[in-house]
Amino acid sequence: MASQFSTNASVTKTILLPQEEAPAKKLRLTKPSKSAALHIDLCKASNPTDALQYLLHFARSSVEAESVEGVVRILLEHYYKEQDNSVRLKIASLIGLLSKTQNFNPESILDDTLNTFNTEKSHQVLAQLLDTLLVIGTQLPESLIVRHRLIEVAYKHLSDTYFGVRNKCLQLLGCLGNVDTPLNKDGQGLVPAVIGGSAPGVSGGVCVRDAQSLISDYFADQDPRVRTAAIKAMLQLHERGLKIQQTIYDQACQLLCDDYEQVRSAAVQMVWVLSQLYPESIVPIPSSNEQVRLVDDSFGKISHMVSDGSWVVRVQAAKTLGNMLQVSPHFLEQTLDKKLMSDLRRKRTAHERAKELYASGEFSSGRKWADDAPKEKVDTSAVNLIASGACGAFVHGLEDEMYEVRIAAVDALSALAQSSASFAEKCLDFLVDMFNDEIEEVRLQSIHVLRQISTNITLREDQLDTVLAVLEDSSRDIREALHELLCFTNVSTKECIQLALLELLKNLTKYPTDRNSVWKCLKFLGCRHPTLVLPLVPELLSTHPYFHTPEPDMDDPAYIAVLVLVFNAAQSCPTMTALFSDHTFRHYTYLRDSLSHLVPPLRLPGRTQAPGVSGIEGSGSVESAQLFLQQSLSRISTIHNLQDPGAQDLLNFTIRDLQRLGELQTELAGAADFSATYLRCQLLLTKALQEKLWTMAVPLCLKHNAMATAAAKQMLEETYKLEFLYSGLENRQVATIHHVRLQAKALQLVLTARTRRGVEPLISVCEKFLQEVESFQRLFVVELPHLQESFVGKLLDLSPKLSACKPGELVKILQTTLRQSGFLNLQLPKQVQRASATIIEPTGESDNPLRFTSGLVVALDIDATLEHVQDPHNTVKVQVLYPDGQSHVIQPKPGDFRSPGPHRHRLITQVYLSHSAWTEACQIEVRLLLAYSSSRLCKAVWSDSSTEGLQPAEGATEGTIPFGKPVKVFIMPKPARR
Amino acid sequence: MPEIKVTPLGAGQDVGRSCILVSIGGKNIMLDCGMHMGFNDDRRFPDFSYITQQGRLTEFLDCVIISHFHLDHCGALPYMSEMVGYDGPIYMTHPTKAICPILLEDFRKITVDKKGETNFFTSQMIKDCMKKVVPLNLHQTVQVDDELEIKAYYAGHVLGAAMVQIKVGSESVVYTGDYNMTPDRHLGAAWIDKCRPDILISESTYATTIRDSKRCRERDFLKKVHETVERGGKVLIPVFALGRAQELCILLETFWERMNMKAPIYFSTGLTEKANHYYKLFITWTNQKIRKTFVQRNMFEFKHIKAFDRSYADNPGPMVVFATPGMLHAGQSLQIFKKWAGNEKNMIIMPGYCVQGTIGHKILNGQKKLEMENRQTLEVKLQVEYMSFSAHADAKGIMQLIRMAEPRNMLLVHGEAKKMEFLKDKIEQEFTINCFMPANGETTTVITNPSVPVDISLNLLKREMALGGPLPDPKKPRTMHGTLIMKDNSLRLVSPEQALKELGLNEHQLRFTCRVQYRKTEFTIFIVLFDLLLKKCYTIQHLPDGTVMVESIVIKVSSSAEEPNTKVLLLSWSYQDEDLGSFLSTLLKKGLPSGLSSM
C-alpha cells in the first residue's frame, strides 16, 4: 500500500507541478474569490468523502462566465490527483454543468477535458466524461473542428466493455455525427490538421464511415440498453435533419421482436421514421414474391405491436399508427377487421349484422341463441389466425386492459379518420362502442373524436341510438361533449330527428341544468336538417287539422326546446310556417326577443318586421357588411390631419356606424369594435389637442387640463384593450396600437410639463419617454416605412436632436409634433375576434342570499363560456368585489377549463368567498378578468411602463382587463353563534 | 437425450376433468386435478391408477399444481390427496386457496346430501387436503426442491387463475390452465414474458372461434336491460355464483351509477356473498380500473346491488335479479322464472352456455310452452335473450400467447379433438414449431437439448484474458485449455494445475526428445535457422551452459567423442510446444528448404 502511494505521488508530481503555477496566476487575474475558495477547499480535503462534500456544496452556487475557465482548471488539477472514482465522476459532471454557463465559450476547456481521457481507467467516470463532452458539443454546434474531435473520441470508446460508455458514445454520435458525405469531405481537410499526431488512418476511418453505419452496427449489441441507445441516437440524427438511409429498415424491423420492451418501443419509432422518409419505396414480402410499399409494410408491422406483451410498447404503437397517414386504404381498413370465425365458419360481426338488419328494415332485436350460427364454410387454409399485418390492430387496441392504450388508440383512429372519409365511416361503430368504456376519460375522448370526424359521416339510426343512450350519463362533461357532438352530426332520417329530440327532452327533465346546452344543440339540429323536421312539425307542435289543442305552457323548457328546433328548421324551409298555429307565432315573437341567440329571424307571412332589421338582414350578407366596413374605413382615410374641420364629425359618425354594424353582424363584431375603439382613441386625442386653451397660461385652464389628462388616461387603457383583447392581429396593427400609446404618453408628458414646476422630475420622465420611442423603433423596424407621416415618423426624423435637447425643448417639440402629425390609417387584418366572456352561472337573478357563517368560507359555483381567448389557463382570472371595496382575484385551476369547440372555452370552477359578518344581505360582484402579461409579444420593453403608466380603472387590477358582464350575487355572512 | 414427457389423465382432447402429468428432468408434476361434471360414476375422477396400482401417490409425484378454483380443475383434489393418498405439496394462488374449499364443500353437499352418494370425500377430508396447500404469489419463484422451481403468471379467466411455469435446470414447461387474453370488467388479460419454454401446454376451448369485440356484447347487454327496466319490466339473469356473475354485477353497477338509474338490482344470497367477500379482499388480482380506484371505492362493494329475498319477486315495478343456478334447472332462478314467465314485459338473459335438457336450453331454442312437474304447463311470454360472456382465450388469443412466450413445442389440451386439429395445423404453419394433442392416457415425449452449465474458475478466465487477443465476442466460440472436473453433480472448469492439486495427483511432464547429427560444415544452417526463429518473434535464450532455449524447447549442441566432425543436436520439447518442436525437428532433419536460406 505504501509503495503504491509513493509511486502515485511521484507520478503526479512530475506531471502536474509545472502546470500548477500557471493556472493559479491566471486565476488571480480573472475571478479569484469563488474559484480560489474552491481551490482551498479541495486542497484541504483530506479524504474523498470530504472532497465530494465540497464539490456538492460548490455545485449549488453559480459561477460567472469569466471565472468558469479558472474553476475548470482547478477542478481538472484536482481530478488528476484524485484516486477516488466518485470524486472524479463528480468533477466530470461539474465541468459539464459549468460549460453550460451563459456567455461562456466551452471551446477553451475542450483540450483539457479531452486530455483526461488518456489517463482515465474507470468506466463510470469515462461515461460521465463523455456526457460532459456531449454538453460541450451541443454548446458549439457550428464548430466543425470540435465536432470532429468529439466524434473521434466517441469512436475510440465505442468498443468499451461497459455499456454506459457505449451508450454515451452513441449519444454523442447521434447528436454530432454526420450522414452526408459532402460534409465529411470538408472535414477531411480539417481533421488531420486538428488531430495532428494521431494516425491519419484512424481519422480517415471516422470520416469514411458515417455516423449512421457506425450506429447501426450497435443495433445488434449484446446489451439491450446499448441497443436502445443506438436506436435513439439514430432518431436523434433524424431529428437533426439528416437523412437516414433506407438500408437499416430490415434491421429496425428485426428489433421489433427484441426481448426488451425499451428496445421494441424505440424500434417502433425507428420504423415509423423510416416509413415517413421512404413511404413509396417497395419492399418484398418474405416467403412470397409479392411486393408492397414500405409505408404499408411498416404499418402492418407496427399494427402487430398493438398486441405486444408490454403496455408501454402498445401505447407507443397505437400512437404511432395515428401518424401514418400515407398508408393505403386497403391496409387501413384491415385494422378494424378481426375476421370473425366460429367453429370454422365465418361469422359476421355484430356491426355487420346490425347494418344488415337495418338495411332489411328491421331493428336489431338483439342476439338470439345460436343466431351467430355460421353460414358459409371457411376454407381452413385461407383463415389466417395471426394476422399478417394490420388485421384487427384497432380492435385490440380499443379493447386493451390499460386505458392509456385505449386512449392512444382512440386518438390514432381520429387522426386516420380525419384523413380518410371511408375509414371514418368504418371506424364509426368502434368509436360509438367506446362511449361505453369504464373510464370516463376514454368515453369523453371518444366523444370528442367523433365530433372531430363528424363532418365525414352520417349516423345511422341504430348508431344514433347508441350515441343518444349516453345522454343519461351522470357526468356533466360527457353530456355536454355529446351535445356538442350532436350539433355537428348529420342524421339520415326523420325518425333520427325524432329520436334525438326525445332523448334530449328526457335529458332535460333528468338534468334541468343542461337547459342551455340542450337548446343550443337543438338549434343546430334544426338548422342542419330542415327537410327532416318538416314532416314532424304537426306532431311536434301537436296541432290538429280540426281541433284546437290547448296552448302549451310558454315557460316549459321542453316546449321551448321543441320550438327552437322548429324555428331553426323553418329558417330555411319557408313552407313550414304555414303549419304553425296562432299561438306559435306569438311564442315566436316572445322567444325571438328573449332568446335571440337561439331563435333566428323568420320571414313570416302577413307580419311586418322592423324595417331596419330586415333591411340589413334580408340582403345583409356578410359580404355587404364587409363592404360597408371597408367603405367607412376608407372614408376615414381621407382625413389627413385631425385638425381639419369636419374631421371630428366624420369620426363621430363613423364610430357610431361601426358600433351598430358590430351589433348587427356578429361575424364582423370583432373587426368593427376594433376599428371603432381605435377611432375613438384618435378622437380623444384630437379633442385634447384641439382646444385653443393650449395657448393660455396654466392656472387659467385647470378644467381643460383635467379633461386632457383624463383623455390621455383613457387612451392608454384603450390601447391595452386593443392589444390584448383581440385575437388575429398582425404586426402592423400592433405597431399602430403602440403608436397610439406613444401618442398618449407624449400627451401625458406635455401635460405634466405644463402643470408641474421644476425640471428635476421632468428629466426622468423625458428619458423614459425617449427610451420608449427607441424600443418602438427597435420592435417595429419592418413597419416604420408605413409610419412616415405619423407622429413617430416625425419624431424619429428629429431623433438626433431629441436626445440632446433639454426637457423643456423636448416638450415643445412633442407638442407641435402631436398637433401636426397626420392621421394614421388603420389596416384591418382578415380576422379580428374580440375575446368575450359570459357568466352563465350564477345568473344574478336570485334574490335568496347565500348564507354562511362569517369567518368561514362558502363556495360559489361559476360557469362561464369564453370565446376567442387565447391560452385561458394563464390569462383568465375571476375577480370578486365586496361592497366594502375589498376585492379578490382568483386564478382558476387549469383543470377547470374545458374546450368544447374551436376558439371556445368553458370555465367551470368554484370560488371561495369569505367575509366578516354583515347585518344585511348585500351584493357582491363577480367578474372575469383577462390578465395580460407584457412578456407576450413586445413585453420586456413595455412591462415596466404598463404597470406604471396605466392607472388601473376602478375595480380593475393592474395588468388585467375586465371583460364580460359582471354578475351580482347576494351573500349574507352571519356572525358565528357562540 | 433428456426428454420431457406429458401425459394427460383428463382434458386430453376433451373438456373437463383437467389432470396432466409432466415428467421433466426426473421430476413428476401433476397439473390440475379436476373432475368431470358429465359423469356420476368412476369416470368423473381422473384415473390415478395410471400412476400407481396400489399405495400412495406421494412417492411418485413431486408436487401438484392447481391453476384455478373451477371444479373441473380442482374437483378431484380431496379424493386424490385423502382417499388415494398424497402428502406432498399442493400449490395454488391465494385466491384459489380461499375460494376452492367453498366450492368443494358445496359440491360435496350436492352429491352426498342431495343425491345420497356414499364413498365420497367428507368435509374433514377437504380441510385436511387444504392443509397441504402452499400458496403462490404472482411472479414469485418457488423452489419445490433444489432443482424444481415454479412460477405463477396472471391468467385472467377467474379471480386467482394462474399460468404456471415449471422449470428444472434449463428445461421448462408452461401450463396455462384456463386463460383469457381480452380483459373484462373485473379481470385483466393474461400475460407472460418471453420465457421460451420447451413445451407450452395451452387450453384450446375456443380453438376455432375468433370472438367479436367485447364492447358490442356489453353494449347489447346493457341496452337490453336498460330498455326493459325503462318499460317497467323485470329482468332475470341466471348465473353461477362465481366468475361471470361478478363481471355482470360490475357492469350493471357502473351503468346504474353512470345513468343515475333507480331500479333495484338484487343478488340471490348464499355462496355469492361469501365469494364477493373474497373478490373484495383480492383486489390486486383484478384489472387496472378496479385496482386504481379501490382506495376511493372498492368496486365490489356494490351500492346498487342488494341481497335478494324470496318475497321481493312479487314486488311491483322494475327490477333486475341475479339468481343461481345458471342453467335454470333448479333452485331460486327457476322459481323466479316461473313467476315472471307470463309477462311479456319481462326479460330473461342467459349469459352462458346451457346443457341440453335444462329449461335454459329449451327456452333458448324458442320453446313457448314448458311442461312443469305435476303436469302443469307454463307459457313463456317473456323475452329470452342469449348473451355469451365467456372467459376463455379465442384462437387469436392463443396465438397471441404463443407469440408472447415463444415456446419450442406446443401441446393442446382442454378442447375438442376436431377443433384442436385445426388449431394445430395453424400453429405449425404460423410458427413452424411442433404441436401435439395427446388423448387421455397417451404420452407425448419431447426431446430437449438443455445447455449444461459449467462453473469456470476466475483465475483461468483471467489468464485467458491476459493472453490477449480480441475481446470475447458472444457470437464466436473460442477455444481455451482447461480441465473439466465432474464431481458431486457439478461441473467445473479449472486450470490443469488446480485440478491436479484438488485431485491430489502428481503432474507428469511429457517431453519429446530427438537427436540430429550434423557435420560441422553444415552448421551455418543452424545460424540461419535462429535468424528465422527470431524473425518469427520467438523468445530465444542462451543459457550459461551453452544450451539454447526457444520458448520451452531446449536445443543442446554437443560434439560426440567418436566423430569429431559431426555435432549432435539434442532437441527436447514439452507436450505443450509440440507444434513448434516437431516443426523444428523436421526442419533440422530434412535440412532447410532452399528458399529459406536466402532469407
From TrEMBL, chain A:
GO biological process: snRNA processing
Localisation per UniProt entry: Cytoplasm; Nucleus
Family matches, as InterPro entries: ARM-like, ARM-type_fold, INTS4_8HBD, INTS4_C
Gene Ontology CC: cytoplasm; integrator complex
Pfam families named among the record's database cross-references: HEAT_2, INTS4_8HBD, INTS4_C
Main location: cytoplasm
rRNA-binding is among the record's keywords: no
Sorted UniProt keywords: Cytoplasm, Nucleus, Repeat
Domain Integrator complex subunit 4/Protein SIEL C-terminal Ig-like: 838-975
Domain INTS4 8 helical bundle: 627-829
Family: Belongs to the Integrator subunit 4 family.
Protein name stated in the entry: Integrator complex subunit 4
Species of origin: Oncorhynchus tshawytscha (Chinook salmon)
Top-level taxonomy: Eukaryota, Metazoa, Chordata, Craniata, Vertebrata
Annotated gene: INTS4
TrEMBL record, chain B:
Sequence ranges assigned to domain Beta-Casp in this UniProt record: 245-363
GO MF terms, alphabetically ordered: hydrolase activity; metal ion binding; RNA endonuclease activity
PANTHER family: CLEAVAGE AND POLYADENYLATION SPECIFICITY FACTOR FAMILY MEMBER, INTEGRATOR COMPLEX SUBUNIT 11
Names of the cofactor(s): Zn(2+)
Record-linked Pfam families: Beta-Casp (PF10996), IntS11_C (PF21386), Lactamase_B_6 (PF16661), RMMBL (PF07521)
Keywords carried by this UniProt record: Cytoplasm, Hydrolase, Metal-binding, Nucleus, Zinc
SMART domains, alphabetized: Beta-Casp, Lactamase_B
GO biological process: snRNA processing
Domain called Metallo-beta-lactamase: residue spans: 16-233
Domain of life where this protein originates: Eukaryota
Protein name: Integrator complex subunit 11
Organism the protein comes from: Oncorhynchus tshawytscha
Cellular-component GO terms for this entry: cytoplasm; nucleus
Subcellular location as annotated: Cytoplasm; Nucleus
Family under the similarity heading: Belongs to the metallo-beta-lactamase superfamily. RNA-metabolizing metallo-beta-lactamase-like family. INTS11 subfamily.
Keyword Nucleus set for record: yes
